[in-house]
Specification:
two-stranded antiparallel sheet, 10 helices, single chain, mainly alpha, flat
Length: about 375
């Protein structure tokens, strides 16, 4: 890597001082690409040493090498040396560049999907992310290389963009589905997202100007987005009054979706909503800003609470308990279970039990409400 950087720097200096032509600049680009490849191979090769990441690490290394090959092809202008037949000879260098970009995006999606897959709570979301990211990459490749075939350039790009958006919504809705969770309402969002995807793709390949159909599509997509956002907002672990931030954020997101639907309906179906406040778009933007800010605040609070929950969840702090003997008042350090005071012989029994919901098993540490925040069951003894 260091030799590649040195070679690129030396060639760059020569090109600037002596104006030696494009070849030296191509050497500079090759050296820079080589150095960048070496930098990227260091973390990707480290993934191979971790068993859950081994396969993805090998794929990542292969992608990095393919990206280097693509960069070399562009730097040395190899496509210009061959006479390719139509339609592949049009903007072939641009197509190679797009392919490299989408391959890098696909690698990032695969890394995120593997992170979900190795999680006990999100393995289904990880498998779904693997499958959907593969489909999205294939669609982007088709949009890149087939855009001049049968005049369907825009349709391929729109289909790939729709698949990317809907895949993100579906994966967010599937978070924590592997748990014993009571979030059955998420299936409404998943069904709405699938239905919106069907309408979206039908309209891409067979465009219509049906205003009612567009409003129905907007309703389905808004429901899917709002429910996926609500499921995401339940990810951070909050305590006490912090849960009001989550409730307010979800409410603002729901208001944003509703106002967007009303705005589209007012535009596509004039005359039906004249009795309602007409500035739906501005109101939707205002609630959207609140929802976005609240979402960021939730994850900041969740990060701040990690220490609290780590202390509550860690069993290492429960190995010994500091106590005072009630008979002789001697300070003791006792393990859970049966113990005896070393000074007076008093037998002491210590039991430690986590405060968990009897219905869903949710950890109720630092809970201030009289109901479980996960399933709503009344907490005994509160």
């Amino acid at each position: 890597m260091l030799w590649s950087l040195a070679l690129a720097a030396a060639a760059g200096v020569l090109a600037v001082l002596y104006d030696t032509g494009s070849v030296v600049w191509q050497v500079v680009g090759t050296g820079s690409a080589t150095a960048a490849t070496c930098v990227l191979l260091i973390p990707t090769s480290a993934l191979i040493d971790r068993r859950p990441w081994r396969t993805v690490g090998m794929i990542a290394m292969a992608v990095v090498i393919l990206e280097f090959m693509g960069a070399s092809i562009l730097i040395w202008e190899i496509p210009n040396s061959f006479a390719l037949s139509r339609p592949f000879n049009d903007d072939v260098e641009l197509k190679i560049a797009f392919t490299m970009v989408f391959t890098g995006m696909g690698l990032g999606a695969f890394l995120c999907a593997n992170g979900l897959f190795i999680s006990r709570r999100n393995s289904l979301a990880g498998r779904t992310a693997f499958f959907l990211s593969t489909i999205v990459c294939l669609l982007y490749y088709a949009a890149t290389w087939l855009w001049n075939i049968r005049g369907e350039r825009d349709a391929w790009w729109e289909t790939a963009g729709a698949a990317l958006a809907l895949s993100t919504i579906l994966c967010l809705s599937l978070l924590h589905l592997d748990e014993e969770s009571r979030r059955h309402w998420r299936w409404v969002g998943i069904a709405a997202c699938v239905a919106a995807g069907y309408l979206w793709n039908v309209n891409i390949w067979r465009p219509t100007n049906d205003p009612i159909g567009f409003v129905i599509f907007t309703v389905l997509l808004s429901v899917g987005v709002v429910i996926a956002h609500a499921n995401l907002c339940l990810e951070p672990r909050l305590i006490g009054q912090q849960r009001w931030v989550r409730a307010g954020t979800i409410s603002c997101a729901a208001a944003t979706g509703l106002l967007i639907v009303l705005s589209i309906a007012n535009e596509r179906l004039p005359g039906y909503l004249d009795f309602v406040y007409p500035q739906f778009a501005r109101a939707a933007a205002a609630f959207g800003i609140l929802a976005g800010s609240g979402t960021l605040a939730l994850f900041v609070l969740g990060r701040m609470n990690q220490r609290v929950f780590a202390d509550a969840d860690s069993p290492t702090d429960w190995n010994r308990i500091e106590a005072v003997c009630p008979r002789c008042r001697k300070k003791l350090s006792l393990p859970p279970g049966d113990s005896t005071c070393a000074a007076c012989g008093l037998r002491i029994f210590i039991r430690i039990e986590e405060p968990r919901c009897a219905n869903c098993g949710y950890l109720l540490y630092a809970a201030v409400s009289d109901r479980c925040p996960e399933c709503g069951l009344a907490i005994m003894g509160s």
